Amino acid sequence: MTTLIDSPRPRAASGAVWAALALVYVVWGSTYLGIRVVVETMPPFLSAGARFLSAGVLLAALVAWRSGPAALRVTRAQLGSAVLVGLMLVLGGNGLVVLAETAVPSGLAALLVAGVPMWVVLLRLTGGDRPPVRTLGGVLVGLAGLTVLTSPGLSGEVELWGVLTILAGSLLWSLGSYSSNRLPMPADPFAASAYEMLAGGAAALLVGLARGEQHGLDPADFSTRSWLALGYLILVGSLVGFTAYVWLLQSAPLSLVSTYAYVNPVVAVTLGALVLGEELTWPILVGGGIVVAAVCVIVSTERRT
Q: Do the beta carbons of residue 173 and residue 95 sit within 8 Å?
């Protein structure tokens, strides 16, 4: 899995690239809306576990069908790395966001998660790297934006625990992304993703059971739109979106692919307002604008270094 810290790749942007990029923009931006609809009637960790276990099985089957079963063969070290990264990305990163969206609007969740590139830069600093001054300036501006975004939780407009949980999830997602480039991962990125989703999905199910989400659970109480949203997250969010992203990493300049980091929040906020009627308060508009602008600075600076 590749992050914003990698070197840019000099590839031209074709029509197929723009089509795939549009998929990543819309699909990944819409997953926050999908999650919010799922947790309206479904338990957070059990639904997240079902999503990623299903997607992991489907992706592993696709890898075996297209490339042969050998593509799924990994060493013990590679499997261990994939499991560890899957726990950080799927259980920690996504699972905590799913939990938090039981109390936090989808648009606000997306804007809080948009700070991931900033956390990656800070992780680079702890690893001895020295990012450009402009990048560090973008991080400082972005942290100010996140401070504004947390104000609804501090004022009681939304649950503070939900805001803090999303920030914790984005930190774990950043750590998983950062670590994946430094661990012995499976050679096939799709196989690596399948193992990550299977490990993270299984762990999410266990956490859901440990939290007692199964007590009094009746699938008849799940709404039709929650079922549809879960199916969308499995087939479109986890398979189509991720597949398009991995293909882009191999086919387009990373500086272009990285623009998803500041387009997804805009899509999520727009969909949340239009579909769910989520209120666009001043902290969301101002803080979100600051964060998106800061991420733009970080991404544009990184692609020149």
A: no
Close Cβ partners of 246 (under 8 Å, ≥ 6 residues apart): 189, 190, 193
* Structure-token match 């086919």, residue found: 251
CA 295 to chain CA centroid, Å, is: 15
Longest CA–CA span in the chain (Å) reads 55
Which residue reads 């300036």 in tokens?
A: 137
Give the pLDDT confidence of 5-19 residue by residue, as tens digits: 443 344 445 788 888
Say what the pTM is. 0.86
Per the document, the length of the chain is 305
CA distance 253 to 221: 46
The DSSP symbol for 101 reads T
What pLDDT does residue 206 have?
Answer: 97
115-148 pLDDT per residue, tens: 887 888 888 788 777 878 888 888 888 888 888 8
Distance CA 272, CA 101 (A): 12
Residue 242 burial (C-beta neighbours within 10 Å; 0-12, 13-18, 19+): buried
DSSP labels, 225-262 = HHHHHHHHIIIIIIIIIHHHHHHHHHHS-HHHHTTHHH
C-alpha gyration radius of the chain: 19
